Amino acid sequence: MVKYELMITAELDNVSTLQLMDGLQDPNFRYFFKMQCEKCGLQTEKESWVCLNKQVFVPKSNRYVHLHQKCRGCEREGIIKMVPIPLQKDPEWRRWDEATPYTDYHGRKGLPVPLMKFECEGLEPFDFILKGPHWRVKSKSGIIFENVDLSGGDWAEWDEKMNAPVVITNFKWSLDVVKGWVWYGTRYWK
Which residues of 166-185 are buried (b: 16+ CB within 10 A; e: fewer)? Predict the structure, then answer.
């Protein structure tokens, strides 16, 4: 089983926070991926999606997962299970394993922020596709812009309260393999 972490980065101008519409662990946000079979290497042409509120039961392994899919080349079954990143408890101090909105600080330093973790067996996600307006942006003046579409990588709007533009550029993502300690509910496991 390989564990991946979806990380985001962006350059922010007059933005204090960037996060998913319904919070950091939005149960309805759909993560679209193109997949590759771990056994034969066949890549899917269409993307598959997973979200926290949709699970399927896999009888062979007697467990619930977020995606169960067969390879068209070798007929191997693959699964993906989503592992939400725990929410930040102390706003003054953030540990590496806690979820936090993407902030102006992250943007200035070029620091990535984790969005979600995925446990993959038999399948490897290799391309994340961002679809639709699912983001909430809070400007430095406190104005909130909802249903922001970052699928093009850039976004801009005018903040009348501050009389300045609110801009997000170079919105990027990466799928990183997780090594070391991983959060599972209430414990850390290697």
Answer: bbbeebebebeebeeebbee
Which DSSP symbol is given to 99? B
23, 185, 29, 41: which is closest to 119 by C-alpha? Answer: 185
Instruction: Please report where in the chains the tokens 């290697």 appear, as a residue.
Output: 190
The model's pTM = 0.82
pLDDT band at 133 (very low <50, low <70, confident <90, very high): confident
* 165: its two tokens: 């533009």
66-76: buried (b, 16+ CB within 10 Å) or exposed (e) per residue? bbbbebeeeeb
Give the max Cα distance, the chain.
Answer: 59
- Assign residue 75 a region (left: φ > 0; alpha: ψ between -120 and 50; beta: otherwise): left
Other Cβ atoms closer than 10 A to 105: 11
Produce one character per residue of 26-42: b if its CB has 16 or more CB atoms within 10 Å, e if not: beebbbbbbbbbbeeee
What is the spatial distance between Cα 124 and Cα 32, in angstroms, rounded to a whole number? 13
How do residues 21-67 score in pLDDT, each as one tens digit?
Answer: 887 778 888 999 999 999 999 999 899 999 999 999 998 888 899 99
Residue 45 phi, psi (nearest 5): -80, -40
